[in-house]
Amino acid sequence: MLQKTAIYTISISLLIIIGGIWAVDNLNLLPVVASSNAPIYDELFKVLFVIGIILFVGMTGLVIYSLIRFRKKPGQVGDGIALEDNLPLEIFWTAVPAIVVLFVGLYSYDIYERMGGMQSLSANSHDHHSMNSEGRVWGGIGLTSQDAIERNSLPMINVDVTALQFAFLFNYPEGEIVSGELHVPRGQPVSLKMESKDVIHAFWVPEFRLKQDVIPGQPTVINFTPTKTGKYPIICAELCGPYHGGMRSTVVVEEPEEYQAWFKQNSKQPEMEL
User: Fold this and answer.
1) The dihedral sign for the CA sequence 61, 63, 68, 70
2) Which of 171, 234, 160 is nearest to 201 (CA)?
3) Are 166 and 239 in contact (CB under 8 A)?
4) What is the pLDDT of residue 152?
5) pTM of the predicted model, to two decimals?
6) Residue 181 belongs to what domain range?
7) Cα 2 to chain center, whole Å?
8) Are 125 and 156 in contact (CB under 8 A)?
9) C-alpha–C-alpha distance, residues 273 and 234, integer Å
10) How far apart are CA 274 and CA 271, in angstroms?
């Protein structure tokens, strides 16, 4: 009886694990992929999802096994044998979580580095129009490793972002454009230099898999390359006041020709001399 129960438990556990792995690869569990950062981040999600399934199934299986294996037998009197320690078991349940945490930490660092989190932000072309007197960037996310390689062939789109209760304003210095929407061309690297005028906000675009705090007096930078045309929500992900839930905007990813037409239409044209 016990052997059959163990076989059933292991078989069901394997089916659940295999089903979970299949779901990660085939079901659309995340928002649409719209930037070069998104596939990198999704790798981390898939790994964590699979680890979570294995741990859940393993722990649930052990609980079921223990309930059956150590249940009170007919005619049994008392509480059973008292087990005070089990050194191999204690080593096992200490080593396994330690290995899992170490693996997740190292893998997360690798993902963060590939997304541009460890790149120097001082090399960004935003340096020529700093938003504070010191021109210091306090933190942010640089270009992905692949985008950094391709940057030489594609010019960077620089945008200054101002966050205030309860809106985002986007300033394009090259065209002297101030917009309530962020317009960017598909396939071209974009650099946002952000600063808050009041409290802490957060710039979050789920489809880009990017989120960066916007802090008063401490400019932060976020870099990305959009890969899919469309309109995607920009959400403030930091509680910033009574109307925090309404602090939203839109990033419009356009084909390069459409972006150039928008930029030309909205940029300040030099006045003609009569």
Assistant:
1) positive
2) 234
3) no
4) 53
5) 0.76
6) 125-266
7) 45
8) yes
9) 41
10) 9
